[in-house]
Amino acid sequence: MSKVLLIDIGNSSTKVSWSEGGILGEQVVIPLGEECGELSALLEPYVRYKGDIRENSGCSQKIKIMISSVSKRLDDILPVFEGFDTYILRGTDKLPFKISYKTKETLGPDRVAAIAGAIAMYGKRHMLVVDMGTAITLDYYDADSNTFKGGNISPGIRLRFSALHDYTSKLPLVELGSAYKCKKIALGTNTQQAILEGVMQGVRLEIEGYRRELEEKTGKDILLVLTGGDSKYFHSSTKNCTFALENLVLKGLAYIGTWNTRHV
Fold first, then answer.
1. pLDDT grade for 216, boundaries at 50, 70 and 90
2. Would you please indicate which residues are annotated as catalytic (active-site) residues?
3. Does pTM surpass 0.70?
4. In angstroms, how far apart are the furthest CA atoms of the chain?
5. Residue 238 to residue 206: CA distance in whole angstroms
6. How far is residue 148's CA from residue 126's CA, in Å, rounded to a whole number?
7. Over the stretch 9-47, which tens digit does the pLDDT of each residue have?
8. 68: Cβ–Cβ under 8 A, 6 or more apart, which residues?
């Protein structure tokens, strides 16, 4: 059974997990700046040397590494993978679905992997996959044509809070408490709350509006899939949504890796 190290390098952290036979293990989150040390420790049992040559052949089996990265930090991390069979996901790759995106070379691999993860979890259904991290991506998959049709990118929650504070003279910087849950039509009764609910309700209505208008335009029932670190704030308030685990990108990498072994 093949073993794969899955790595999702984002703007605010790096997420990793092992996959064996397409089955995903527990996700581990590595803070910014600690990737090289943490990943080196994970790979050490699988390293051996022939002279000065580092090889991917360790305690019991060779492994493969699959990476999705939206960060320039990848260039600094790549030396850790020397000697290993390493695959870096790109929008131009051969994939288990088509992509109707004019500039595939600029398409974020996290968006590609999130679509793949949603297909792996829910099958080939019409889906709007919303990944809520530093930025919010909203991507549409059409099941009839097995095509990622494209999508949009907007500022994430913390970027919106920061913009209100940084580009005004008096508005405070609002931070989310761990217990916060977005509720439907909550009106602020002080400035702090008005900013909090203005941003959060705006994001909720944005997501619901995208799905509603896509359904009206296509005439199809569209499954709304929320993922990413900030999706937890919206699960109970967003209409007719499916909440995917935060490791949807890692699931997508595992799915693409399994598909590649059969079709490439």
1. very high
2. 110
3. yes
4. 69
5. 10
6. 10
7. 988 899 999 988 778 888 899 998 899 999 999 998 888
8. 7, 8, 9, 89, 109, 110, 112, 113, 249, 252, 253
